[in-house]
Design brief:
Its cofactor is Fe cation; Fe(2+). Helix content is 65%, strand content 2%. With 325 residues, the chain is mainly alpha-helical. Strand 1 and strand 2 form a beta hairpin. It binds fe (ii) ion.
Amino acid sequence: MSNIVTCTFFIVFLSSANLSISHQISLLLREVENLKKPYTPREVHVQVTHSMPPQKIEIFKSMDDWAEQNILVHLKPVERCWQPQEASSCSTSWAVWTRAWTAEENRHGDLLNKYLYLCGRVDMRQIEKTIQYLIGSGMDLRTENSPYLGFIYTSFQERATFISHENTARLAKELGDLKLAQICGTIASDEKRHETAYTKIVEKLFEIDPDGTVLAFADMMRKKISMPAHLMFNGQDDHLFEHFSAVAQRLGVYTARDYADILEFLVGRWKVSDLTGLSGEGRKAQEYVCGLPPRIRRLEERAQGRAKEVPAIPFSWIFDRQVKL
Ligand SMILES: [Fe+2]
């Protein structure tokens, strides 16, 4: 039972975080260059000042610096503002995809949350608290505002969620929870479709702009793919994500070997080693990504060799019961 519950935790935090990814991607697609540009009115009228006595004007003039420090911070950059047409009428393929994809990810989080609630074996207050902290903390995927980086990231991450849900389904089945196995199997098949879509987008980018795409691929892999929930917090454990990851690794839900396998899969899927006509920089990037999977595996084997006895720590979601890392 504890294995099932622990696996489910991992899946739930991945799924909740997918919502944030979709938000990020929709921003990527919409954003124009200058998100941080301060708000400036489009039209400046001739000011009528004679109705205000000069000393009053001085008061407002003297407050100008203060207002800059204290008031302008409450403005939201125009490009980040919600726009009415986003509710329904934007019908580019990107907008249609992003909305429907987000809706699918939302169903995953809802379903797993309901499973946890109905199973009655977890502390829902702690789970909800963690989700609140998770979404409130945001994330830093290091995709900047580049759709190239964003789509390489999602290709990797969707395959990672496909693998982790599939592994959870297998463990749940082995441990006799057929309902959870069915839930995770269904989610895994959605994730597989998402992976297909994102890898197709990057395949197309490789076709149109091989140099730019291989540079982005190398850039993203140098930064490493962090899971969207890496800033998660439950109000008490400052290393909560590392602790969940360690348990996921030990249970075989998602491991360092999976990371190398995904990378190798993508290199093959996009035929990166066959790219020709690249710039000098592009060739270096190509060499780097093609050589990376065996390097990660060697590092992983060395780390395994050094692995010592691991501690058990309390997890708030299961009433502070100790789980071995
Ligand atoms: Fe997904």
